[in-house]
Design a protein that fits this description.
It is a single chain. The chain is of the alpha/beta class. Helices cover 39% and strands 17% of the residues. The protein is built from 21 helices and 17 strands. The strands form three sheets. The chain has a nine-stranded mixed β-sheet, sandwiched between helices. It has a six-stranded parallel β-sheet with strand order 14-13-12-15-16-17, with helices on both faces. Strands 8-9 form a two-stranded antiparallel ribbon. α3 crosses α21 and α12 packs antiparallel against α15. It starts with 13 loop residues before the first helix and ends with a helix.
């Protein structure tokens, strides 16, 4: 558990937005908080998923409520009408009108009662804010952050507008729900960062009595608001201050983190370390936040598991190697049958054995899988594709399930699948069949991430599959090299800011990255890790099955109960 002995509240921007009397009033209200009500604020939910944050919202709230003795815990999230049209929500009948950009915007409050069984049976109320003209995300993946698929600047502008409205409306929604005092708002990601301002404004104006705000950062992303944008959500006194003292604007996190009431938290211990030490964050994503991070620190609290243990391995770490081998062979056979027969129209590439049916694949040929959203800046699919080009036909078999927001992002996949027909199959969809068989029947799960705040290595482990991953972020917390998985890392020689920028600049056409020295180093390191894993699987089966068994052990070190207890220590800091 993180120690907060040296942490102190970083209210560096209080004097910019609030008078001395207002600051003293806010301080007294925060210091007097009793922890009765927890409000989880997130732009993702069970009905609007992009990355791991949606899974966090589903799993963590019952534990946070019960472990920390809150009287109630709720979620507040946007209602995306084009994504959530068929979801089982009910209209609460509550509406608030908020002044936004010099006009009144009506915000409806909808609700879903989410049942849960752990840690005790109960339900969590999830509230969704609907406003005409806002939260209109629409894209093939139903990604809540996707408004304009091929127009990044317009998409960013839409996200900022929706962030501003959400942060402006939430204090009024809290009041409408009767949550005016003894409230902790646990906000997620930059889209909610300005809640640290709007909630304090509501306390000053007596619309709320007592409310503290803490943040969890799940990704290194941020967004810059102009002074004109910020003035859209401020009251007259603060509009004058913004105009004169913040004329060039500021990013969401520059404001939010310097008004927050608790420590800065992220989703894994190693990622917290990297935020102030890894060049991709200190030089590329978050150089502007380094002074803030250095003043108060960044604290890592590991997520719990997003999936339960697979029923295929009922004894988990108590299984013998022979039992694991028997189950893996059965799941592998099941997977091969599915790969032979499941052919949705979106699938491309073929898996064969010596030109014939993949069901005849010998036991010693490894099957590799990589799943998840296709983010060319993060997930490393293109690093894997370059590595796969170095393997002969029938040397390995690979299944990829990249969830792409732009069709052009799949261009390189098509090229490699055509050149190495027989070795690679791609499902660029949410699979309706076989996904669990992929997780449990494969030899290795692959995660060659460029960075990874937490990651999904545990999802493979609980399904009885070892993981090969780049040694970064939360993957380093989940995987112990040569014990429950394989970690690789390239040489540091070419890991420079110039090469990082060149890598990011080639996101639209990832084939351009092939000349990047840092990319070549990553491909070399991944190829070596793949070949090591193949030798382990073929030549040292006991070591391979022990790796799977140790994966069950390691997955047990991560729990939502532990996560909730550590956040309890964060909440305690709010009153300091």
């Amino acid at each position: 558990m993180a120690a907060f002995d040296t942490w102190h509240k970083d209210w560096s921007l209080m004097g910019l937005f609030f008078t001395a009397d207002e600051t003293a009033r806010i301080y007294s209200r925060v210091a007097a908080l009793a922890f009765e009500n927890l409000v989880f604020a997130s732009f993702e939910s069970r009905f609007a998923r992009s990355g791991g944050l949606a899974a966090v919202t589903v799993n963590t709230l019952p534990w946070l409520e019960q472990i920390n003795d809150f009287k109630r815990a709720i979620l507040i999230s946007p209602l995306y009408p084009k994504i959530m049209a068929k979801t089982p929500l009910r209209d609460t009948g509550k509406k608030v009108s908020v002044l936004f950009a010099q006009r009144l915007v009506e915000v409806e409050v909808w609700c879903y009662a989410a049942p849960y069984t752990a840690p005790v049976p109960g339900q969590i109320l999830e509230y969704f804010l609907r406003a005409e003209g806002f939260f209109g995300a629409e894209n093939p993946l139903n990604d809540p952050y996707g408004y304009f698929q091929d127009q990044p600047e317009a998409n960013d502008a839409a996200l900022r507008a929706n962030s501003l409205l959400f942060c402006k409306a939430l204090p009024a929604v809290l009041a409408a729900l009767g949550l005016t005092n003894h409230v902790i708002v646990h906000a997620q990601e930059w889209q909610t960062a300005l809640l640290a301002l709007t909630i304090k404004e509501a306390v000053c104006e007596e619309r709320l009595q007592g409310c503290g705000v803490i943040f969890t950062i799940h990704n290194p992303f941020d967004n810059h608001f102009s002074a004109a944008e910020l003035m859209q959500i401020a009251d007259p006194a603060r509009r004058v201050r913004i105009e004169h003292m913040l004329s060039h604007g500021a990013t969401a996190w520059e404001i939010g983190l310097q008004l927050a009431d608790g420590p800065i938290v992220t989703v894994s211990e190693n990622f917290a370390h990297e935020f102030t030490r890894d060049p991709i964050h200190t030089g590329y994503f978050a150089p502007h936040l380094q002074p803030i991070f250095q003043r108060g620190g960044v604290y890592g609290i590991n997520n719990g598991p997003f999936l339960p243990y697979s029923d295929d391995f009922p004894r988990r770490e108590k299984h013998t190697h022979k039992e694991i081998a028997r189950i893996k062979r059965a799941k592998r056979a099941e997977l091969l049958q599915i790969l032979e027969s499941y052919s949705p129209p979106e699938r491309f590439g073929h898996l064969t054995w010596q030109g014939g049916s993949i069901t005849g694949l010998p036991d010693e040929v490894p099957i590799l899988v990589m799943s998840g959203r296709l983010d060319p800046g993060q997930k490393g699919y293109d690093i894997l594709l370059q590595a796969l080009e170095r393997f002969a036909i029938d040397e390995i078999k690979v299944i990829l399930t990249p969830m792409a927001t732009r069709p052009s992002d799949l261009d390189y996949f098509y090229q490699v699948a055509a050149r190495y027909d027989g070795n690679l199959m791609v499902f660029p969809i949410r699979m309706q069949q076989g996904y669990q068989a992929l997780q449990s029947g494969s030899t290795f799960g692959l995660m060659p991430s460029i960075y990874e705040p937490f990651g999904a290595a545990i999802e493979y482990m609980v399904s009885g599959t070892a993981v090969i991953a780049r040694n970064t972020g939360g993957l380093a917390d989940q995987i112990k090299h040569d014990i429950n998985g394989i970690l690789f890392r390239e040489r540091p020689d070419h890991y420079t800011l110039d090469q990082i920028r060149a890598f990011a600049g080639a996101a639209a056409i990832v084939q351009w990255r092939k000349t990047n020295p840092w990319v070549r180093d990553m491909v070399d390191a991944l190829e070596a890790a793949l070949r090591y894993g193949m030798r382990l699987f073929r030549e040292r089966p006991d070591a391979y099955y022990e790796m799977i068994r140790q994966g069950f052990v390691q997955a047990g070190q991560f729990s939502w109960e532990k996560n909730a207890r550590e956040y309890g220590a964060v909440y305690d800091q709010v009153r300091k």
